[in-house]
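Weekly modeling sync, notes
Attendees: S.R. (lead), two postdocs, one rotation student

Agenda item 3: backlog of single-chain predictions. S.R. asked that every request posted to the team notebook include the full sequence so nobody has to chase files. The rotation student volunteered to paste the first one in as an example of the format we agreed on. Action items at the bottom.

Example entry:
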Amino acid sequence: MKYPHGTALVILFLSASFALAEDFKTISGKEYKDATVSRIEADGIVLKTKSGISKVYFAELPKDVQERFGYDPAKAAQFAKVQAAPAQSNPVAPKQQTQATAENLHTIREVETDQPSFLDQPFLLKGVIEVSDYYSWGYNRAQQTHYSFKINDGTGRRCNAFMERGKAGGLRQQLLSAGGPIKGLFTVVLLGRRYEKNASLCVELLDYRIEQ
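Predicted structure, as returned to the notebook:
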């Protein structure tokens, strides 16, 4: 394939730059040492380190890094919208779906007592959710990127849940309109890149289904 004048050089330069290991530091202070950029997406970059692969959102990175990788907030918002859209693949039979849901449903106490075993593996919580203003531990500087919530699973245990603002606006508005907690089934994940040992349970809210 022939490239316009200079294009081949640009491709070679970018390929070389992505292959070089370097350090990345988020605005909250979390560091990724000797990381290589394995993929660039509209809302963030995927880094490969000795400890594994992590996605770091542009909203968490300094402005100079955002500019370096061509961050466009409008494109990021559209990308998040597409990612949040429900999959239109083959439907699961009701019985199978119920069984799968039951197998992946956990209590907050279960997760709290063995957090490392749940890292980066989406699971379900059932209970009530309410708006919160809590930001701490791995989310101590996420006010600009996430809305904060609390989930109570009905056993007397609560956990902090955070959802990207682009996805959580509808849920937050529902809660504010209701004037209090509402019941639902919540898909959450304990992100390894935000996990801190001995911290209170803080999960990323991926999806939700409100019960009437």
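Discussion: group reviewed the output briefly. The longest strand covers residues 31-41.
Action items: rotation student to repeat for the remaining queue; S.R. to check formatting next week.
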